[in-house]
Design a protein that fits this description.
By secondary structure, the protein is mainly α. It is 80% helix and 0% strand. The chain has one domain (40-249): Orthogonal Bundle (MetI-like fold). The chain is globular.
């Protein structure tokens, strides 16, 4: 029997995963009625809600998540275990349950909700509640990815920068952050894709304004499968370019470093 080449073996092993990934989208292409491709009422508004508010949510996630990720990667404090458990709790809690918990905390009758009501503020079916829902949907994912990125930075390079007279802030800015940037960016893209598709938390805590996931559910009830297919195409066309561009930049940057 002729021996299989390395390339043939690699293609054999990657085929199952690729087949699983491509099958739903082959079905989408085949099932879409291209001659009657027409967005339902509110589809473009839902896309705008998801993209704009997810950008604000990602800003909050990065600003809140980076300090925690750095601390988890560097600290030896006994509090680290408690923080790791909190991150795991957030990852393991089902989306539907997390939405209910947010209502209990931030809703009109929750502890924080009552405090906000005294100041004539509310987090109930508005842009603020939508952003909070997405933050809770993605924060733990970003922290986990960013923490791994910082842990993979060689400590020897940071110590060398200290020995050369760099302050901790200077070392972080010019050594740690550039070395971790590619992995952080990848984690950020995965987190953004995750929160754009978040349904469980948003449907419970912030049904309005309707983003794409909730609108998909509404379209399924009102217009059937074809209205769902149209909105899926809108989602893919609007959201795919950004992660594709970032991943291309990451690959090109890695290639330049390798060639250099």
């Amino acid at each position: 029997m002729r021996r299989l080449s390395g390339n043939t073996l690699r293609r054999f092993w990657i085929a199952p995963a690729l087949a699983l990934l491509v099958l739903p989208f082959v079905s989408l292409i085949g099932q879409t009625q291209w001659s009657a491709l027409q967005p339902a009422y509110g589809d473009w508004h839902a896309a705008r809600v998801s993209i704009v508010l997810s950008a604000w949510a990602m800003l909050i996630i990065v600003m809140a998540g980076l300090p925690l990720a750095i601390w988890l990667a560097r600290t030896h404090s006994w509090l680290k275990r408690a923080a790791e458990l909190l991150v795991l709790f957030s990852l393991l809690t089902p989306s539907l349950a997390m939405g209910i918990l947010l209502v209990s905390a931030f809703g009109p009758y929750g502890t924080i909700g009552e405090m906000l009501a005294r100041g004539r503020m509310t987090l109930d079916n508005n842009a603020g509640s939508f952003i909070i829902a997405q933050v809770y949907g993605g924060l733990a994912y970003f922290v986990t990815a960013a923490r791994t990125a910082f842990e993979n930075v060689p400590r020897e390079l940071e110590e060398a920068a200290h020995d050369l007279g760099c302050s901790p802030s200077c070392t972080f800015r010019f050594v740690t952050l550039p070395l971790a940037a590619r992995e952080i960016a990848t984690g950020g893209i995965v987190t953004w894709v995750r929160i754009v598709g978040e349904f469980g938390i948003v449907s419970v805590f912030s049904y309005f304004p309707q983003g794409i996931p909730v609108k998909l559910y509404v379209n399924l009830q009102n217009g059937g499968l074809q209205s769902v297919y149209v909105l899926v195409w809108i989602l893919l066309l609007l959201t795919l370019p950004l992660p594709a561009l970032v991943l291309a930049l990451i690959r090109s940057g890695k290639g330049r470093l390798t060639n250099g």
